[in-house]
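Form 7-S
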Amino acid sequence: MIRSSMRPQEARRQIWEGIVERFKSVFCSAAAMAALLAFGTHAYAGETRGFAVTWFQPAMYTGEDDCPDGLNKSPDFKAVFAAEGKTPEQIKELIEHPNSKEFAEAVINRGPHGENVCADPASAPDPGQKTVQGKIAFGFNLDGKTDNSSTPAPNSCAHAKFSSPDGAPNVDNQHYRALGCMIAIRGKRGHDGFVLSYIMERMKAEGLRTYLVEVKGIDNPKDNANVEVGIYLGSDPLVLDAKGEVRRDTTQRISKDTRWHNVVHGTMKDGVITTDVFDLNLLGDPIWVPEFHFKKARMRLELQPNGDLKGTIGGYQDVMTMYYNTVKSGILFETTNAATCPGVYYALKHAADGYPDAETGECTQISTAFAIEAIPAFVLHQLGEAKAKTAQAGAAGHQD
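Output:
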């Protein structure tokens, strides 16, 4: 048996040096690989800030001259029943029992052949819903059109443009044009419509859905050439204080389901973040809006002095999806929202301005803008979460 003349201490030293050299080799290779992967992409080495969303609803401007002919009204039930051929006695009985099954059926099934006009709005004639006539709305120039010609932009339908409240021209927000004269959605200056406010209160109080925002790459509090903005579905309900307000600086986990992960490049100028164009997908809630899908979306977000985040999300949404999400409660919608199902249907169809159908030429999507507000939170990516795919910039590229 051949014995080594090396002392135990010397052997251990050589073994340790070998381990160190191997570690250095692996580390340098990993660093080189990371450098290669980072080459040609945006670097987000600065501060990361997280936020929990406290408001996410359609942005309604509510200008003084929006609805010169007044606001929309609920159906004239007596006229509806008379048109159905009901006798004065039958009409009186129905009006005196508005919560009865008979009343609901007589109101909803008022199509020419007894169709449910909320489920099949095209069966009824266009009642001529009142739409916004004002010139100002929140939103973005989604189709890129900047001239005043009657020729629509590619992949769009002809429509009038708004200006934003800060004076920016060529704003597309046909959703506001179609539904902005409905009191339940419209509200009044400084106060959102009661339907939107009610939805958000239920979302917060019942924990129906949580959205989170994460901003990476903040090297300077005002100006940054490259930031990364993520908007995600959250796993945890918002935490409320004793007054029912959302608590700041709570820990919120991002959902592992990457279908609801949206990550996009942006720039920051004077504290305002403007993102590239991307498709935004968010899981909604089972009661109001099951899913949100914004095509050609973009965000404008402003960091507030108190650390909050406020801004606007714009994009195109499917017309029929928006219609059914608006009127899904049927007679309850018509009575509480002061509008009619056929009126909303035809208003949205006439206002649609994006993605024309190849056969009919009618646009299938409608431009919209949502207001978003968020407060600081500790946003966590969960272990086992698959890497979210970064949203790809659309043809429009970076936004000015």
